[in-house]
Specification:
about 20% strand; about 280 residues; D-Maltodextrin-Binding Protein, domain 2; about 40% helix; globular
Length: about 280
């Protein structure tokens, strides 16, 4: 564990011990106290945010944040793996306490749920075969009828695809693993996803000709999705993130998950999968 990160977690523990919530706990806090567990909903196919390792463990930036938060609260962490399209509905049903997956804060989503953060910035990017990337001058060059471009369904990637590339043939899936496998098999010409995800895919499969287009297609901020009816839980998460920022721990975690490749060796090779 990073030294700065350890310091920040200690600060959170002290905060929760010395300054317990004065307001009446809402339904989420009561559920966490009763069950002695914090429940995170995440897809688990979105490195570097959350991904299944070769050993079957969930790892990633979002997962690390949640694990240390649960430890600071003195409860266990339970992770529910969900399709991205089911994250908000599962949160609203009360089956999970919070959702994370490099989740972009949008007005439409914010009409349904509350967001804590932002805890990071991102943007949509395009990854495809080298010859396509080298043919691009401007993003508008992707708006071609001869291109098949993939995106995860019900995401800002899909919105970006439809807004900027209406002439391209859209290929929508419910799984990023399925989408990347289609690209590796040559079934699509490229895909749109968050820039960090595209860079991880490029690092893993550059030998197979994948490159990331160097112009970001959008700017987005990332937040933790929660229900709006528990101010104490929202306050706890807000203070937790503030302490991570103030101590430098959040920056150290970002350096590890977004700029280091050490953890990537733990991921399974998608080219050997036959499920899709």
């Amino acid at each position: 564990m990073h030294r700065f990160f350890s310091f920040a977690i200690t600060c959170v523990v002290v905060y929760l011990s010395v300054f317990p919530g004065q307001s009446v706990a809402g339904p989420v806090i009561e559920r966490i106290r009763t069950n002695q567990e914090l429940v995170l909903g995440t897809p688990g196919d979105f490195p570097p945010f959350s991904v299944i390792s070769e050993l079957g463990d969930l790892i990633g930036f979002d997962v690390s944040l949640a694990r240390e938060l649960a430890k600071s609260m003195g409860v266990n962490l339970r992770i529910e793996r969900l399709p991205f399209s089911e994250l908000i509905s599962t949160l609203k049903s009360g089956q999970v306490d919070m959702i994370m997956s490099g989740l972009s804060v949008t007005p439409k989503r914010n009409m349904d749920i509350a967001f804590v953060g932002p805890y990071g910035n991102s943007g949509q990017a395009f990854i495809g075969q080298k010859e396509i990337i080298e043919s691009l001058g401007e993003p508008k060059d992707l708006n071609r009828a001869d291109l098949k471009i993939g995106a995860l369904q019900d995401t800002t990637a899909e919105l970006t695809l439809k807004a900027l590339m209406p002439q391209a043939e859209p290929v929508l899936t419910k799984s990023l693993d399925e989408l990347l496998i289609k690209l590796l098999r040559g079934e699509i010409d490229g895909l749109i996803s968050d820039y960090p995800y595209c860079k991880v895919a490029e690092y893993r499969y550059k030998s197979q000709g994948l490159l990331v287009y160097d112009k970001i297609l959008s700017f987005e901020q990332l937040g933790i999705g929660v229900l709006p009816d528990d101010p104490l839980f929202v306050n706890l998460l807000t203070n937790y993130l503030n302490l991570l920022v103030g101590s430098g721990a959040l920056k150290a975690m970002q350096e590890y998950w977004f700029k280091s490749s050490d953890w990537i060796v733990a991921l399974p090779d998608l080219t050997i999968f036959k499920d899709f």
